[in-house]
Amino acid sequence: xxxxxxxxxxxxxxxxxxxxxxxxxxxxxxxxxxxxxxxxxxxxxxxxxxxxxxxxxxxxxxxxxxxxxxxxxxxxxxxxxxxxxxxxxxxxxxxxxxxxxxxxxxxxxxxxxxxxxxxxxxxxxxxxxxxxxxxxxxxxx
Amino acid sequence: xxxxxxxxxxxxxxxxxxxxxxxxxxxxxxxxxxxxxxxxxxxxxxxxxxxxxxxxxxxxxxxxxxxxxxxxxxxxxxxxxxxxxxxxxxxxxxxxxxxxxxxxxxxxxxxxxxxxxxxxxxxxxxxxxxxxxxxxxxxxx
Lengths: 141, 141
Ligand SMILES: Nc1ncnc2c1ncn2[C@@H]1O[C@@H]2COP(=O)(O)O[C@H]3[C@@H](O)[C@H](n4cnc5c(N)ncnc54)O[C@@H]3COP(=O)(O)O[C@H]2[C@H]1O
Ligand SMILES: Nc1ncnc2c1ncn2[C@@H]1O[C@@H]2COP(=O)(O)O[C@H]3[C@@H](O)[C@H](n4cnc5c(N)ncnc54)O[C@@H]3COP(=O)(O)O[C@H]2[C@H]1O
Known about the structure:
The structure is a homodimer of 141-residue chains.
Chain A: H1 3-7, E1 16-17, E2 24-25, H2 30-40, E3 44-48, E4 54-59, H3 60-66, H4 83-86, E5 93-95, H5 100-107, E6 112-116, E7 122-127, H6 128-140
The complex binds the ligand Nc1ncnc2c1ncn2[C@@H]1O[C@@H]2COP(=O)(O)O[C@H]3[C@@H](O)[C@H](n4cnc5c(N)ncnc54)O[C@@H]3COP(=O)(O)O[C@H]2[C@H]1O (2 copies).
C-alpha cells in the first residue's frame, strides 16, 4: 500500500468496540470511579451518560488531585465527589467515518481517542497501540 | 529517507533526558509516590536507586491496588507501604546505542521505554509521543 492509501484507510476495523471499553457513568462517585480504574487497570477511561453519549474522560489523577488537602489527602471526601465535577469534558474525538490520517494526527497528543457515530453515540476507542501496530506493519512492508 | 534508514536511525536525539523525567526513589513511601504522580500528572514513572540505576516502574494503580481492603480502601496504610514492594521490577529497557526499530517494536506494548547506558545508569525515556511524531514525519514525506 502507498502511504496515501494507508493514510486514507477507514478507521472502522481498528476500533475497540464500546462493549469492550471500561467506562464510568455521569453521576457516579469518585470512589466508584477509583474502584473501576483500579480493577480494570486503565489510567484514563470515558465518562458516558445513560444514552451512551460521551461526556468526558476520567483519570486516576483527576481523582487524587480533587482530594489533595492542605496537609493531608482527604480520602473521606471520595464518596461525596461526582465524576461530573472532576472529569475532563474536552475529549479528543473521531467520527466512525474518519480516516486513519486524522487518528494519526490526534494520537500525537492523546493516548486514545473516543469514536462516535453521527448520532453522537459512543461506539468505541482508537488506541495508540492499535495505531502503532498499523504503522509498524506499513513501514516493514 | 528510506524505511531502512529510518528504522536504523539512532535513538539518542529522541530521548527525554533523565533530568526532565519525574521519578521516585527506592525507599520512598507509597504516599510520597502518590503525591509525585498527582503533582506531575504522569500515570507511571521510573523508580531509581541512589546511584541513578533503574529499579522499576510505579503507577497510580499499583498504589491503589495495594490498599484495596475487603470493604473499604485502606488509605491510612499509604505511609507504611514502600514503592519497593509494589513497583513493577520488570521494565522495558533500551540501551542508549539502540536503533529506532527496537524502540518501535517495544512501544507496541509500553507507553514509554527507559533508556540506560553501558553502566546501567538511567539516562532518560523514549515515549510513544516522540515515536509517533517521527513516524508521522516519515510517512508524510
Ligand atoms: N490490561 C492490559 N493488557 C495489556 N496491555 C495493557 C493493559 N492495560 C494497559 N496496557 C498497555 O499500557 C498502555 C497504556 O495504558 P493506559 O491505561 O495508561 O492508557 C490506556 C487507557 O487509558 C485507554 N484504554 C485502552 N484500552 C481500554 C479499554 N478497553 N477500556 C478503557 N480504556 C482503555 O487507552 C489508553 C491507551 O491504551 P493502549 O492500548 O494504547 O496502551 C496501553 C497498553 O499498551
Ligand atoms: N504534562 C503533560 N503535558 C502534555 N501532554 C501530556 C502531559 N502528561 C501527559 N501527556 C500526554 O498524555 C500521554 C499519556 O501520559 P501518561 O502520563 O499516561 O504516560 C506517560 C508517562 O507514564 C511517561 N512520561 C512521559 N513523560 C514523562 C516525564 N517527563 N517524566 C516521567 N514520566 C513521563 O510516559 C508515558 C507516555 O508519555 P507520552 O508523552 O507518550 O504520552 C502522554 C502525552 O501525550
